[in-house]
Design a protein that fits this description.
The chain is an alpha+beta fold. The chain has a single domain, classed as Gcn5-related N-acetyltransferase (GNAT) (Aminopeptidase, 3-Layer(aba) Sandwich), CATH 3.40.630. It contains 7 helices and 7 strands. A 7-stranded mixed β-sheet has the order 1-2-3-4-5-7-6, sandwiched between helices. β3 and β4 form a beta hairpin. The longest helix has 15 residues. It is globular. The relative contact order is 0.17. It binds coenzyme A.
Length: about 180
């Protein structure tokens, strides 16, 4: 009897993206209405990154960004199409969550994706479509985030596909352990 090939085991590492990975991710992010995107330079410089690889090949990523006032955004979750449906996103999300929570950060996420919204709900985030109710940290951080000419061009280019996708929901989780000891790194 011929048995089906076993999927390659996936490795997860907390490390910066290599330049080829950042370039691949930059191209991939252009294809989804769910994430505005990042320049290659931003992706290479990001430090709070979980990377999934399968047999050495780049398979997925979760990027977290620190905002002011002890908040961290679980900012970009992306799994390359050929690796989807194998639990990689869930594992990346859980690792980013554990790291943020253990750094005693409050956590924030924004998503149009039902699968990701389910992950947010499962972790106890309060989901809310009224973005004006975002924490002050988000209101302080967003102008800086949106000051990127690259993201403005992408917002314009993706406007139609974003309108056709499910609305954005924010997830808010206030860390009960947050306080003066919250770690910056
Ligand atoms: C959304 C995305 C990250 C999911 O990646 P993935 O590795 O395929 O997800 P997983 O296999 O970990 O599945 C996550 C959950 O969705 C469920 N799921 C998987 N495929 C599904 C499908 N086709 N329909 C509905 N649910 C599905 C899984 O059962 C799992 O639920 P569980 O954790 O309760 O078991 C991936 O599709 C992607 O990169 N999409 C484009 C970018 C994007 O939308 N990113 C999110 C931005 S907020």
């Amino acid at each position: 009897m011929i048995s089906a090939p076993q999927p390659v085991p996936v490795e997860y590492r907390h490390r910066p993206l290599t330049r080829p990975e950042a370039e691949a991710l930059h191209r991939e992010l252009k294809t989804t209405p769910n994430i505005l995107g990042y320049t290659v330079r931003e992706l290479v410089r990001a430090r709070d990154v979980w990377v999934a690889t399968a047999d050495g090949a780049f398979a997925g990523v979760m990027l977290s960004l620190d905002m002011p006032l002890g908040w961290t955004e679980l900012a970009a979750l992306y799994v390359l199409p050929e690796y989807r449906g194998r639990g990689i996103a869930r594992e990346l999300f859980d690792r980013a969550w554990e790291r943020g929570a253990s750094r005693r950060r409050h956590l924030y996420a924004l998503s149009r994706n039902k699968q990701v919204q389910e992950m947010m709900r499962r972790r106890g985030m309060v989901l809310d479509g009224a973005l004006w109710r975002a924490p002050l940290a988000v209101h302080l951080f967003m102008p800086l985030y949106m000051s990127s000419p690259y993201r403005n061009v992408e917002a314009f280019r993706k406007a139609k596909s974003m309108r056709e996708t499910a609305p954005l929901l924010q997830g808010i989780w206030r860390n009960p352990d947050a306080g003066p000891g919250a770690r910056r790194r």
